[in-house]
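Narrative of activities, Objective 1.

The group set out to show that a structural description can be obtained from nothing but a protein's sequence at a throughput compatible with the screening campaign. Below is one input-output pair from the validation batch, recorded exactly as produced.
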Amino acid sequence: MEPKHLLTLRPYSSDEIKSLLTFAAAIKSEPEKYTSALTGKTLAMLFQKRSTRTRVSFEVGMLQLGGRPLFLSGDDLQLGRGETIGDTARVLSRYVDGIMARVYGHDSIEELAANATVPVINGLSDWSHPCQILADYQTIQELYGEDLTGRKLVYVGDANNVYRSLVFGGIKLGVHVAIAAPAEFQPDPSFIESVRDEAQRTGSRVEVFADPQEAVTGADVIYTDVWTSMGQEEEQEHRRKVFAPYQVNAKLMAVAGPQAKFMHCLPAHRGEEVTSEVADSPASVIFDQAENRLHAQKAVLVRLLGE
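Output recorded for this entry:
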């Protein structure tokens, strides 16, 4: 039987995502029940891009489940620069029970999965960040209950991997996902069109705004990310100028209303995409999100490596 991978949330059904989130909540509430769930299992963790939350949460998660994490940096493997990615996947599959990779290009994670005979988990790529988004929707369920149908999440910033993954998860859960971004950083219309039919089937909406105040009206969640990701450093000054009107600050939160919560996948560049006033406010749940990376990923690990 072909191994099941987690490269993006897109091919996962609504029921599969809801089941993963329910399982993550169960692991969080009673972690002692799962301390031997992955006894004898080893996870290879491949990092082309450095990380805090991804490395620590996967490493601690495997240990808490009774398994063994194996950290491999880009320098350890020379992934795709010496041995081919396909050969790396084939070799690692002979040694380990699963592969988690944090890479620059999504084509690298796809090539790993195409050649591996063990499950491959996307820890981040330029196209998708599924583990982060599972943790995000777990956090939103903790705020508003398991049924998120009709809840409104507004992403303020670049239409990047986090935004796309929020859409892929949102349309499975009936969440209205809006983005507020300057024209040059809005999602490609073909992307919006590609998810429209599924969104309609689940009662979700996917909307695009240029005006952040219009976008956040009635929002349950306001979400942002850094304006400049790793690999985009040459664009940093331009992005700072263009995104300046899209900063999440107290004024923008006030437009949404007192019920709105603030989310950020971290790390945050305080004073750029968000002010410290908002990040440290009672509305902020950014550290709940960070914690839930651990629980959501433990659910993924058990489902993919343990069953």
